[in-house]
Design a protein that fits this description.
234 residues; two-stranded parallel ribbon; 13 helices; two-stranded parallel sheet; single chain; mainly alpha
């Protein structure tokens, strides 16, 4: 999504230096508070910021006071876990790499469930609770996969960008999985690529009954609340 938005003429991707330093020092930005002067830093530029900060009261107020529209993206937390394990295991410079490198995928999923899963649940809940519906939009990865054109058009409208058919379809086509992955179809696994599979529901290929039980305890209610399950019978 970051690259899709940055495809519009004049826009560019950037990062907050303090956030980068914080991530390197703490292994993530899930508890990072945005600088109060964020709106003035980019007021004269067309900037796309991709951050993993929480939806705390402070962060949402910074965005609201600066009249900054923002997009919140998340996906099924079980698929997040699978993606995280594969990504960390093949990324030697990742701060968590030593924790995962000698684990099997299922052992890695167990480790994630006991360590990071609660943080991811809280991250989604924080944005859902504190966001301004008039100033923000929630996009689930699964919805983006199901209808990329329609979903991206909603995003373009949030940021008051051109949403005509030619513009939207051109950007979507350039960012299709098949193009970004070097020609692989969705579902074709490539563990050494950032674009590994490009599908939803891959967790079903890796979760054992024990893993399901572990994830239900921590994320079961969240999966129901955010539309991924009807009940805990999965």
């Amino acid at each position: 999504m970051e690259s899709m938005l940055a495809s519009y003429p004049g826009f560019h991707k950037t990062m907050i230096p303090e956030a980068v330093s914080y991530e390197l020092e703490n292994g993530g930005t899930h508890d990072y508070e945005l600088p109060a002067d964020l709106p003035t830093r980019f007021e004269d530029s067309l900037t796309v910021l991709k951050l993993h900060v929480p939806g705390s009261v402070h962060n949402t107020r910074v965005l609201e006071k600066g009249e900054i529209s923002y997009l919140i993206m998340y996906r099924d937390l079980r698929d997040v876990a699978v993606s995280h394990v594969f990504y960390v295991q093949r990324t030697p410079w990742h701060p968590e790499h030593p924790e995962y490198t000698d684990l099997s995928v299922r052992e890695g999923l167990h480790h994630f469930g006991n360590t990071l899963l609660p943080e991811f649940v809280e991250w989604i809940r924080s944005w859902d609770t504190n966001r301004d519906p008039e100033q923000s939009l929630i996009v689930r990865y699964e919805d983006l996969l199901a209808d990329t054109v329609a979903t991206f058009r909603e995003v373009a409208r949030l940021f008051e960008l051109p949403d005509d058919a030619d513009t939207i379809e051109s950007i979507v086509e350039a960012h299709r999985f098949e193009n970004l992955s070097g020609g692989r179809d969705r579902g074709d696994d490539a563990g050494d690529s950032f674009f590994r599979k490009g599908v939803s529901g891959d967790w079903k290929n890796h979760f054992t009954p024990e893993l399901k039980s572990l994830y239900k305890k921590t994320a079961g209610e969240a999966l129901i609340d955010f539309g991924y399950e009807a009940d805990l019978d999965w």
